[in-house]
Fold this sequence. Notes:
- It is a single chain.
- The chain has two domains: 30-85, no CATH class; 96-314, Ribonuclease H-like superfamily/Ribonuclease H (Nucleotidyltransferase, domain 5), CATH 3.30.420.10.
- The protein has 314 residues and is of the alpha/beta class.
- The strands form two sheets. A five-stranded mixed beta sheet has the order 4-3-2-5-6, sandwiched between helices. Strands 1-7 form a two-stranded antiparallel ribbon.
- It has eleven helices and seven strands.
- The relative contact order is 0.10.
Amino acid sequence: MARASVYRARVPPLLGPRPAPAVAVQPTALNGQERAEILAVLNSDRFADKSPAQVWAVCLDEGLYLGSVSTMYRLLRAAGPVRERRAQATHPARVRPELVADGPDQVWSWDITKLKGPVRGLYYDAYVMLDIYSRKNIHWEVHSTENGELAQDFITNCIIANRGVMPATVHSDNGTSMTSKNVAALLADLHIERSLSRPRVSNDNPYSEAAFKTLKYCPAFPGNFTSIYDARVFLGLFFEYYNTEHRHSGIGLYTPGSVHDGTWKYVRDGRQDVLDAAYLAHPERFHRGPPRAPALPATVWINPTPSKIESEGK
C-alpha cells in the first residue's frame, strides 16, 4: 500500500465523500443522430463486408464525408466487438492420423533428415524408411537434394529391398517430397494408403523422429561428412548395426531385424532358458517369482485414441 493511502485512511475526510468528477463533453463530438447515421452506413448491405477505410474512401469519392476512419472504428467498438468484417475463408481441420500395426509390413514410416557437409551451408539428404512395428530400417538413401522424383524412386527401392513385400500404409510428414504428385501417383498405383502428419506436429511421425535421434546421438556419428560418399558409408554401417545388433527398448530389447523376420521368438526362448537356470540356482534372489523374458508389444500406434490407451493399460 502506498504511504499516502495509509495517511488518508487514518484521517477521515472533513468535507464528506469526494464528489464524482463531472464528465466533460467534447463540444465537437458527434451527437446521437450522427453516430446512428454512421453506424447505419457501416452496417448497410453495401458496406457490411468492407473495412472502415474502404467505406471512408468510397463515401469520399461520392462526395460524402461521414467522419474519420478512427471515428468509424471507435463507433464500431462501442456498438460491438470489432472484428474482420469481410467474409473469411474457412479450412477444414487437419485429420489427426491414427495408425495401428500388430505385425511387420503393415505400416511404414519415412522421413528425410539433413546431414552436414564439409562446409557451412552444404547438406546431404538422408531418406530413411522404417517399419513401425519391428522398427527395422527397410531401406535408406543419401542424395544431394530432395524432390518428388527421388522420393518416388526411393519408395520403389524400399519395396525391392523388402523382397517385393509392400505395406498397407505409408506414413510421412508434410514435406514437399512427401506430398509430391510423384509419390501420390506411385502409392495410388500400388494401392498403398498414404498417411500424412498434421502441419508442424512432429509427434505425428514419432518413429522416424526417434530413429533420427538414435542416429545423430550415436557416439560414432561425425559432426560433418567430408563427402556424400562418406555419408553413405557411415549410414550403411550404422543401419546394418541398427537392424542386427541394436537392442531396441520399444520392442522388448530385441533387434529390429529379428522382430521383422520373426526370429525374435527363438531369441526369447533362449533368454528364458538362461533366466530359468538363474532362478533355479538362486531362487531367493528373485523376490517377485520366476523372471520372464520380455515379449513384444501386441500393437503399436501412431496417435492412439484414449480408449485404446486405457484398454491396453488394463
